[in-house]
Amino acid sequence: MVRYSLDPENPTKSCKSRGSNLRVHFKNTRETAQAIKGMHIRKATKCAQAKQWGWTQGRWPKKSAEFLLHMLKNAESNAELKGLDVDSLVIEHIQVNKAPKMRRRTYRAHGRINPYMSSPCHIEMILTEKEQIVPKPEEEVAQKKKISQKKLKKQKLMARE
Q1: Does 145 fall in a domain?
Q2: Residue 126: inside a domain
Q3: Distance CA 158, CA 73 (A)
Q4: HEC assignment per residue over 45-60
Q5: What are the boundaries of the region Disordered (predicted)?
Q6: pLDDT at 57
Q7: Residue 32 lies in a domain
Q8: Handedness of CA 41, 44, 50, 54 (dihedral sign)
């Protein structure tokens, strides 16, 4: 079992998804993940796809959005397996961490060699089923009749006697 950085408040009403050492840029993925944090799963999927308004180009880095979509799909299937209501899932926690860099080399002029590093990342997310908020019934407050100062003083005087 893999350890997550956060435990959900109610484990029975939440599902998790995690990916380690993913070959996708850390910086791009972190920004994309923060943009969808707190959204409903359907809205986050639409946002990551960036197919709004019939545009051909998306708003997010393509590869980062693709990996996050796969993670959302995985979390959704985990929720179905647990028997949760998929339409009421909200991204409660999403975290992107740096993974160990992968090394390659590039050959330069005059026989030099420079590093050619990639910046992979780990992604984890926790989705929680949002409870429907039931409005509190309004109690009828008995409105007091406004009494003039003169009548109030008279009542106090009568109460003393």
Answers
A1: no
A2: yes
A3: 76
A4: HHHHHCCHHHCCCCCC
A5: 137-161
A6: 60
A7: yes
A8: positive
Contacts 24+ apart (CB under 8 A), 116-120: 118/23, 118/25, 119/25, 119/26, 119/27, 120/21, 120/22, 120/23, 120/24, 120/26
What global pTM score does this model have? Answer: 0.76
Taking the C-alpha atoms of residue 8 and residue 128, their distance in angstroms, rounded to an integer, is: 8
C-beta of residue 75 within 8 angstroms of C-beta of residue 15: yes
Q: Provide φ and ψ at 118, rounded to 5°.
A: -110, 155
With tokens 């109690």, the residue in question is 139
- What are 95-139's pLDDT values in tens digits? 999 999 999 999 999 999 999 999 999 999 999 998 878 888 887
32/24 Cα distance (integer angstroms): 12
> Which CATH number is 66's domain given?
3.90.470.10
- Domain membership of residue 72 (yes or no) is yes
Task: Give pLDDT tens digits for 33-58.
Answer: 999 999 999 999 988 887 655 665 66
How far is it, in rounded angstroms, from Cα 43 to Cα 55? 17
